[in-house]
Amino acid sequence: MKVLGIAGSPRLGGNTDHLLAEVLKGAKDKGAEVKTIYVCDLDISPCQHCNYCYQTGDCKIIDDIVKVYEELKQADRIVIASPLHFMSVTAQLKAMIDRGQSRWARKYILKVPPLGDDKKRKALFVSVGGQKLANLFEAAKTTVKAWLVSHDIEYTGELTFSGLDEAGAIVKNPEALKKAYLAGQKLVTES
User: What is the pTM of this model?
Assistant: First the structure.
């Protein structure tokens, strides 16, 4: 079982990075092979909405999005981690998500598997937000779910924590870290 962590925060070592590390640790302790990619370290241009992918199923922009798709093809489970920025995912992660238009075109226009196979993949969304609002994570969850659907990846749920703005504040919350660890174990043990 291969688990891919997608770290969407531009702030390395922040709250979502700590939570993602715990999720992956839980998965690894159950025998999974884990890997993390840091979107802020990748060169991913925004989608140009040129519709080139409608004919080919691939994007005409050749950049690090190719690396993301290589990792996604190999993964059985995916953990997407992002803090909230103005009620949604970070700009870096959103650029990666928007470039998923080519996989949307594969699925809905060209009628082929978006990742090239029929492998059953599952995903978990991990997020933190500074505010404490009832529907704080809804916009981000909707964005992540739409991306997952277009890639034929099953959304299994989310692990979200509000009221966290300070970098690293999550490490002062051992219960949150335990929840993340257990979520990682659950992600790889449930069929």
Answer: 0.95
Q: Are 88 and 107 in contact (CB under 8 A)?
A: no
Reported as a single tens digit per residue, the pLDDT across 82-110 is: 999 999 999 999 999 999 999 999 999 99
Residue 60 to residue 73: CA distance in whole angstroms: 19
Residues 6+ apart with CB under 8 A from 7: 16, 17, 20, 36, 37, 38, 39, 40, 81
Could you give the CA distance from residue 90 to residue 181 in angstroms, rounded to a whole number? 23
Residue 188 burial by CB count (10 A; 0-12/13-18/19+): exposed, middle or buried? buried
28-60 confidence digits (pLDDT tens)? 999 999 999 999 999 999 999 999 999 999 999
- Strands 121-129 and 77-83, sheet pairing: parallel
String of DSSP letters for 54-95: HHHSS-S--STHHHHHHHHHH-SEEEEEEE-BTTB--HHHHH
